[in-house]
User: Fold this.
Amino acid sequence: MELLANLERGLQELDRQSLRRRLRVAETPCAPRMKVDGRDMLAFCSNDYLGLASHPRLVEALQEGAARYGVGSGASHLISGHSRAHALLEERFADFLSPHLESPRALYFCTGYMANLAVLTALAGHEAEIFSEELNHASLIDGARLARTGVKVYAHGDADALEQLLKASTATTKLVVTDSVFSMDGDLAPLPKMLKLCEQYGAWLIVDDAHGFGVLGQHGRGALEHFNLRSPYLVYVGTLGKAAGVGGAFVAAHATVIEWLVQRARPYIYTTAAAPALSHALMASMDIIDGEEGAQRRAHLRSLIGQLRSELNLQRWKLFPSNTAIQPVIIGANDEAMRAAKALYDQGFWVPGIRPPTVPAGTARLRVTLSASHTGPEVSQLASAFNLMEAFA
Assistant:
């Protein structure tokens, strides 16, 4: 078949450019020590920043939730799938972020991808204009495309360029959308400057805090707490499959914004609600994040970040300037990055190679992510392997 032949040629071209992705099979729970494709590995690749994905309290809560609520929700939220577990969790999120949002309410989604699609498509009308960060996550880019309205892209972290775009805009509704922590670089958006601009020019500031929620801030309230922000212009998206250790996402904002999403957000209205047991497990996750154990885990994670940065001694490769759990090592060429990833894998270290189109051409990298479940000796092992490998690369 010519159709299949076309696909095969496309796959061969991906191979030629060292761009073909590979699925690996994890046979044990998400943790630093895992069995992957039959091999024992030390993993530095998950987004399980606080080490909660296999926490005994969350496992017990998920089992309890399944016994109480069953396995599936059975319908969309607006039909009959909205359980008490969902409602309690949404109330918990609204209360948790009340220091940073005015008259807050929250809405739970099956995934972070769906939450971002929902916010952008529901809030952007025909006379709206979206101002999107250059390095935004694919879900925000796709949400802006699906909104079917004008989109302006501003340079990474450039608040001055954003101001010029806002100043020139005549749109009735303006939406500025950004990641908080950029998933491939680990740096933070200049949210205080951006919020000030949004308040000045009457724009929503939509913050995707996927990699900040639970990790940043004294209490784990994410980028809003980290920067001490509060405003009715904020629309906050928190992802729950990373630091929270379970799955799904939520949007928190002024109650009027959330009610509009309930009425107009197609990714919320037209999909089956997530299993209530997940929401029940997430309540246990929130207890940890907001408690003493969460504070201890965040402190340990910060110490591991500092340790890795001090022990890596790279000469040719570049450690990106990041103070978050995401620590990218920029290598450059696709083939060299993948050779380095394989060399680490052969030594028992699972560190993914990241290539275009996920990152710009010429910036292929190894993306190291740290977890509060890692130990100091494990981080030292990784740093030594990196230093030795680069010396002989």
Observations:
- Residues 292-311 form the longest helix (20 residues).
